[in-house]
Specification:
Number of strands: 11
InterPro entries: Sce7725-like
Protein name: Sce7725 family protein
CATH class: Alpha Beta
Largest sheet: 8 strands, parallel
CATH topology: TIM Barrel
Number of domains: 1
Number of helices: 11
Distance between the termini: 9 Å
Structural class: alpha/beta
Strand order of the largest sheet: 3-2-1-9-7-6-5-4
Radius of gyration: 20 Å
Helix content: 25-40%
């Protein structure tokens, strides 16, 4: 199973929502959502997954964004009420990032009705493994996302999901010109043999979190694909006119022309790629948020198709 870890920004939520709406992904995809904002886009996404009997996992103690402050100060906010109600749905799996207060915070969640064996834990720091052992001595979690490190494997024996950031983030978009084609991941090939239930990563966005976007000097698109041995590689398509922030539509066209030329050989045929091809044929510019959405959709659909064939 693949657990794409997304930060819950608008276009990331719309990406997974449209993948389900258009029936482009199978049940081997379970998105982990770290909410950064209490929004109708978030609750609509959770609602759709529950209506379609598809599992989704919102993180209840996000480490980035303003979600926690917004929900604490949300008297009579309909989105807050809807979010709390959705946590009672069987397809919405409460998820927790372990921290120094994990024992106390999990006890509070269990008192609210979240079942101990139905929660997903994300382990990023070895210092909190003792809290995991104390809390789950009698019953195991649904899944444990862990780095591929022996200290985590020794303590966490069950329901492990391999969790890594596979995206090699560059400081500037123009820096991808120096590494246009890179290895991305082979976790999908070996996770089961290595004793994991699944694998997780930050898709083609990476773990860095930036609150708001900014006008870039260069436009870059990041497209994953399989090589002849089914390793996942990533290709970066970067604009040429990168001296200032003017004409983002023109920069998008430059990067897209390179993608179209490259794909004549690769023949990638996912929804995200087809929509990008349409923008090329029509000479349209959808905005950078939509470009990111289509790149994420392409990645998740590609992984779903692979897992459908193998498992």
């Amino acid at each position: 199973m693949y657990f794409p870890y997304l930060r819950g920004k608008q276009f990331e939520l719309i990406a997974i929502r449209e993948l389900v709406e258009y029936k482009l992904i199978g049940k081997n995809i379970l998105p982990i959502i770290e909410p950064v904002k209490l929004s109708s886009t978030l609750t609509k996404t959770l609602e759709l997954f529950s209506q379609e009997a598809r599992f989704i996992a919102p993180i209840l103690n996000p480490q980035v964004g303003n979600f926690l402050n917004e929900i604490k100060n949300s008297d009579s906010d309909k989105n807050a009420e809807k979010f709390v109600d959705l946590l009672e749905n069987q397809y919405v799996l409460g998820t927790h990032i372990t921290n120094e207060n994990t024992v106390h915070e999990l006890k509070s969640l269990f008192e609210q009705g979240i079942e101990k064996d139905n929660i997903i834990l994300i382990h990023k720091n070895r210092d909190y493994l003792a809290q995991y052992s104390e809390t789950f001595a009698d019953k195991e979690t649904r899944y444990n996302l862990i780095p591929d490190e022996s200290v985590f494997r020794r303590t966490i024996r069950h329901n492990r999901v391999l969790f890594n950031d596979k995206f090699a983030k560059k400081t500037r978009n123009s820096d991808y010109i120096n590494a246009i084609d890179e290895f991305f991941s082979d976790d999908h090939l070996y996770f089961a043999d290595d004793g994991y239930k699944g694998f997780s990563d930050y898709s083609v966005i990476g773990s860095d979190y930036i609150e708001s976007g900014f006008a870039p000097y260069a436009v870059a698109m990041h497209i994953v694909y399989f090589d002849e041995k089914n390793n996942l590689r990533i290709r970066h398509f970067v604009s040429d006119s990168n001296d200032d922030i003017k004409d983002p539509a023109g920069k998008f066209g430059e990067a897209l022309t390179k993608l179209v030329k490259w794909n004549k050989e690769k023949n990638l045929d996912t929804y995200g790629i087809r929509k990008l091809m349409e923008h090329y044929e029509n000479g349209t510019y959808p905005g950078l948020g939509t470009v990111k959405k289509l790149s994420v959709m392409h990645h998740i659909e590609l992984m779903s198709d692979f897992l459908n064939e193998v498992y």
